[in-house]
């Protein structure tokens, strides 16, 4: 729970810095409100909260959309609602395994021969 609170505070700080734009209200032709919904409980909402990727995209692209302003509260012309979840799935993958071989062999007539080489096989390996 403590990590979640710290993460939420970090996102809020990033969001505040992005939404605090230097545009006067008259330059905002389209107001966009970003709302994050809780994956488990859709009634829980965080207004103005963006993911790190969303913040980075907005920082790199505001000049492409000069009349668009992010707002932290209503009223807004558009709402971008988003949520996220993470799931770990275990699976088995066939992984190539290469083994080096070398040694000596004695023939039936008493000669000693050496050999070396590699072999590759496919072995299942549990992944996450």
Outline type: elongated
**How many domain regions?**
2
Arithmetic mean of pLDDT: 78
- Helix count equals 2
Oligomer classification: single chain
Terminal-residue CA separation = 24 Å
Uncertain regions spanning at least 5 consecutive residues: 1-21
Rg (C-alpha, Å): 29 Å
Strand content: 35-45%
Structural class: alpha/beta
Measured as a percent range, the helix fraction is: 10-25%
Largest sheet: 4 strands, mixed
SSE order, one letter for each helix or strand: HEEHEEEE
Beta-strand segment tally: 6
What's the gist of this structure?
The protein has helices at 2-19, 52-60, and strands at 30-37, 45-47, 68-71, 78-82, 91-106, 112-127.
Task: Describe the protein in words.
The protein is an alpha/beta fold and 128 residues long. It folds into two domains: 2-82, no CATH class; 91-127, no CATH class. The chain is built from two helices and six strands. Strands 1, 2, 3 and 4 form a four-stranded mixed β-sheet that branches. Strand 1 and strand 2 form a beta hairpin. Helix 1 packs parallel to helix 2. Mean pLDDT is 78; it is low at 1-21.
Topology diagram in text:
Layout: H1 2-19, E1 30-37, E2 45-47, H2 52-60, E3 68-71, E4 78-82, E5 91-106, E6 112-127
Parallel strand pairs: 1-3, 1-4
Antiparallel strand pairs: 1-2, 5-6
Helix pairs in contact: 1-2
